[in-house]
Amino acid sequence: MPIPVVFSERHRLHVPDGEIWMGIRIAGTELPARGEVIAARLRADGHLFSPPDEISTEDLIAVHTPDLVDFLSTAWKRWHGSSYPMDPGQDRVVPYAFPLSDMTLGRSPRRPASVGALTGMFAMDTMTLIGPGTWEAVKDAAAAALTAASMVASGSEAVYAAVRPPGHHAGTSFYGGSCYLNNAALAAQRLADRGLGPVVVIDLDAHHGNGTQQIFYRTDRVRYGSVHIDPAAGYFPHWLGFADETGEDEGIGANLNLPLDPGTGDEAWLEGVRQLASFGEGARSMVVSLGVDAWKADPESPLEVSVEGYTQGGSLLGQMDMPTVIVQEGGYDLGALADLVAGFLDGFERGR
Ligand code: SP5
Ligand code: ZN
Q: Which helix (H) or strand (E) holds 20?
């Protein structure tokens, strides 16, 4: 039986329309077409689709601050009630100044009057633009991950949330890296809350999931393990993803980072996936952050994993035989995206 899929057509409403990269607006790669090619392929392959349940703010503050949720849900309206769309002519919400902690004397910054300044309190970068339909799509992506977790908590063996935008760079109180709310973290927290803890999150995206790591850094109810491009080699998210980040307080030993050199291919990547599977032993359920941007021709990462590599990775995780929520993260080669996702899901099914 192909893995059931939770999917919302409303992902299409999120049209970031580029990113501000080194101060310049460029095309960007987190496109609506990503959701379309994945859904088309899985429909053709006979997966059963269902829409997400309705959710409320209460569901989101399980891992995020009310301030972040309030900002994301109102940012577009505030921006379009300001002068920025006319002067300087910016139609997307984007930050320009950031309240670094020394700059505010270590105090929590007071809420600024201008929405331009307010954006700098929540955004970790300039690449993650907010447009007219962003919030509706973001909310449905979170809802899809939560729905998949509820299905698994009520007995489904494995469910795939085919979402965009992705989520693993978003933390308790901040967004960035093309992510707004942390879909995978919401799923993991729900599994833990429904008696399926400890949960292990296994992150296969080419980039380190700094947001997921931050959300669960001080707890052992949700472990976080990731194999990704080494931030020390100059890659996003730059500040986190190093091997010496192993958790704090109750979470000591519950965080595992496996950074890889640029050019790393299937063999070493799969060895990393095997280590993540061992790290997950003894957990009662699993969330897979399924980024497929470690693919060798992906425009956003220098890792060199093949479709066969992702299929074998799926098989290794399927063999863990745990209740599992699979959540889509990155993956930007539109010509390979469907093969990579379908390959992983096939491998996962066959591994079980
Ligand atoms: C979820 C996810 O995979 N987020 C990745 C965000 C990574 N962005 C990396 C830095 C952006 C560089 N994009 C411009 C490339 C110009 N050649
Ligand atoms: Zn990525």
A: strand 19-21
What's CA 296's distance to the chain center, in Å? 20
Atom of ligand 1 nearest to the CA of 207: 3
Does residue 1 surpass a pLDDT of 90?
no
Q: How much of the chain exceeds pLDDT 70, in percent?
A: 100
DSSP string, 219-274: -SSEEEEEEEE-GGGT-TT-SS--TT----GGGTT-EEEEEE-TT-BHHHHHHHHH
Share of the chain above pLDDT 90, in %: 100
Strand partners, 305: 295
Atom 2, ligand 1: which residue's CA is nearest? 330
Nearest CA to ligand 1 atom 6: 177
Could you read off the pLDDT of 79-99 as tens digits, one per residue? 999 999 999 999 999 999 999
How many Å apart are CA 193 and CA 161, to the nearest integer? 19
Q: Helix count (H) and strand count (E) of the chain? A: 10, 10
Report helix, strand and coil shares of the chain as percent, to nearest 5: 35, 15, 50
Q: Is 21 in the pocket of ligand 1 (CB under 6 A)?
A: yes
DSSP 176: B
Write out the catalytic residue numbers. 169
Q: Closest Cα to atom 4, ligand 1: which residue?
A: 177
Task: Enter the DSSP assignment of 275.
Answer: H
pLDDT in tens, 253-269: 999 999 999 999 999 99
- Ligand 1 pocket member 293 (CB < 6 A): yes
